[in-house]
Amino acid sequence: MSICDYDNPKLMTDDCLKPLRFISSDILQLKPVKFLAWYSFVVHFVTDLMLLLFIAYLYHDPKQNVLYIAVLIGDYYPTFATALVLQDSEKVAHLKDELPLWAIDTAGPKHYSRIKLETQILSVYSIVTFLICLCGCGLYMQNLSHDQEWFFVLKMIHDFLPDYYAILSSFFRLSIPFFGYAMILHAMETIYYTQHLRYQIIMFNEYIAGIGNCRQGKKEDDLFYDVEYQEEVDRRLRFCIKRWDEYLGAYNNKLKEIKFMMVGFAVCGYFLGISIAIIALSGVVTPDYFPRHLATGLGALLTFVGVIMAGQALETEMEDMVLVINGVKWYNFNKKNKTLYFTLLMNLMTERRLQLSENYSINLELGVAIVKGIYSIVTVYTNMDMRKNF
């Protein structure tokens, strides 16, 4: 007999990804954090615009401009992330309203143990990433020896308002903590979405596998004519079709929400990778900057890998779902149930991905493409720099 309850599956009352939810949503509801988001966005938008104007019309030091531009394109990522926060800071909070989430023990102890372990790993991952982010923010708040070479606005303050450098530079540095947090925020949101949806698929697969397991002890030859068996199969098939419709509704809504977001982050993440690589190869990184760049690089790597692996894991689980539905012994079903079964089968066989474009989804293929793109740009930059030195 199936261990699944096809009448009233147990609903989730306590979020199994609490640390991830706190980092990706709850903290944003605090008024001081909202104020800091607005403050940071305005400061960086204005300073980035100033940098573009000065480089275009007034400032003509090619070597220094490369460094400033590297910092500028690296700033696109947190600027875009902060703009999305200001537009809607409660994306994560709506998930339970869109899809009734089953409790993680709904499909039995085997799946409960698996999901529980994964939620614990994700909680540790999210906390470690958040702590690295906080450490990085603290390091960027410090006044280091060559900051004027990195941050154009600090050079402008030093050159034109030297008497007010201490206080004005402090105002600029106050914008850094939220931008550091914004670097990981939407990656955490995406991981939160995808893994909750994935856990629902894991449990749903158990329900699919149990569709025909409702009359154990009976000979298979007798099941076709067993009225009670056919009625129970009918009930279970209809339950699974209804649940899949609920899931698809939530999945499609979230895909619409994050599609623009993830396209933007793929582009900005590409620029961020180029920025980090150019800065590392610039030759002006002194030892006192190593901790700062280590925190930046490690935080960027963790969020990049986390999002790519989360998307790939969801995609893999959906592919496994097709194998599960194909394993159902449908040949014992009557004509009506076979029709329902093939309806469900056709729905599940439709490919579902976190599609960003016709060619790319959030999966390992996208990760490899981004890494290759960054490597190509860095190679071109390195070759150009070597020719100049030669």
UniProtKB/TrEMBL annotation:
InterPro entries in the cross-refs: 7tm6_olfct_rcpt
Coarse class of the protein's main subcellular location: membrane
TM region positions: 36-60, 66-86, 122-144, 164-188, 260-282, 294-314
Domain of life: Eukaryota
GO biological process, any: signal transduction
Cellular compartments annotated: Cell membrane
Keyword vocabulary terms for this entry: Cell membrane, Membrane, Olfaction, Receptor, Sensory transduction, Transducer, Transmembrane, Transmembrane helix
Gene Ontology CC: one annotated term: plasma membrane
Keyword Transmembrane belongs to the record: yes
One MF annotation (Gene Ontology) recorded for this entry: olfactory receptor activity
Membrane topology recorded in Swiss-Prot or TrEMBL: Multi-pass membrane protein
Similarity comment text for this entry: Belongs to the insect chemoreceptor superfamily. Heteromeric odorant receptor channel (TC 1.A.69) family.
Stated name of the protein: Odorant receptor
Species the sequence originates in: Zophobas morio
